[in-house]
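Table S2 (continued). Query chain:
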Amino acid sequence: MERDLPPPAEQLRTAGLRVTGPRIAVLTELQAHPHADAETILSASRARLGSLSTQAVYDVLRVLAGAGLVRRIEPAGSPARFETRVADNHHHVVCRRCGVVADVDCATGEQPCLHPSETHGFAIDEAEVVYWGLCPQCAAAQVS
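Corresponding output:
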């Protein structure tokens, strides 16, 4: 599900963040490449800006995630990925072979398992569902 987002500068201002070149570059690249890892974002942002340190990208991602503009997901066996689709109830499907990630809307329409049988004293605020399988390209290659 793609959604129309305001321009990155407007998103930053609305979140109360300073508008900087690195922040705009990272948000722009994440909108163009959902589920990208930090290295992919770094390469694309460097191409856009000319130069950018690795630490700057990690700092920007941390600030954007803290402000709720991006979401960090961590599929098992994969580097952390980032996306701009936040504050909705969606999940992910991950290819076991190539690692590609895609969004999956919630089948029930509400967050699953926010009321587990035992909380162990935790204040539960999020549940994550990850589906695993083979993407169409990897499944076709397996048949060949």
